[in-house]
Amino acid sequence: xxxxxxxxxxxxxxxxxxxxxSAGHSVVAFDLPQVYWGSVDGLEGVEIxxxxxxxxxxxxxxxxxxxxxxxxxxxxxxxxxxxxxLTMRVNVDGTRNIVEALTRLLxxxxxxxxxxxxxxxxADEEPPIGEGHAQRAHNNYxxxxxxxxxxxxxxxxxxxxxxxxxxxxxxxxxxxxxxxYRADQRVEFVYVEDAxxxxxxxxxxxxxxxxxxxxxxxxxxxMTGREYVEGFYGALGVEVExxxxxxxxxxxxxxxxxxLFLGYQRLSFNGLQERLRVLGEQLxxx
Length: 286
Known about the structure:
This protein has 286 residues and is an alpha/beta fold. It has one domain (2-167, 191-217, 255-266): Rossmann fold. The chain contains eight helices and eleven strands. The protein has helices at 11-22, 56-62, 79-82, 84-103, 140-153, 192-204, 225-236, 269-282, and strands at residues 2-6, 26-31, 46-50, 68-71, 110-115, 159-164, 167-168, 186-187, 190-191, 212-215, 223-224. The strands form three sheets. The protein has a seven-stranded parallel sheet, with helices on both faces. Strands 7-9 form a two-stranded parallel sheet. Helix 1 (11-22) packs across helix 6 (192-204) and helix 4 (84-103) packs parallel to helix 5 (140-153). The longest helix is centred in the N-terminal third of the chain and has 20 residues, at 84-103. The mean pLDDT is 96.
């Protein structure tokens, strides 16, 4: 299968490209010319295609001769919150360009990376949060993703919408000035490779067509913000003094029972910690 991955040079996009290529697929990684391409440059089976998702002509050319599209390109917080107009052009108009290009093709499936952020702030509700929960725009990012979902659902293009939890990686991640959730808040992440596996599986499995699915780490990843931060940096061997948000934010625990058929929840939080301990030793942090 020849796949187009928008946002293909990013953290999640490059993981999708790597997994797809390793499974024997041909991948076109589409991303802005100025981004760092090192994560996919030189990967066997991966073609690099610089371009802008807001350019209709470029998008039209990009989708030619592909048999599936993974649409990850978009502005994320905090950049999405600095300029609403730009966020809507990239996240909504860019999605519209993809959809309109695909309507001219017959039966090419689309997997769209949406976000659990569209459920809004749910700290006062009973977890876990399922796909039937009402969507509530609370910032530019969630508003743009909700509008992009609407465009896709009404397009007639065969599609799967994945509402993905925050991504976790086994790497030395710089602590932000303010952690974007409270210390006592329920949080659930998903390991980057597991999220990529869910995306690839949903593209390949006809049972995923037309579905809206939560993608998150599962029971072992359901904890408080403090437990996640301390567990992550403690495994690395790094002492941190985090400053947490004073307000509840749009992350919670999620019901992923409907997405389990994708077979993606491979790495537990303890498994992530084991990888971080190895990395910490390699970096001389432990």
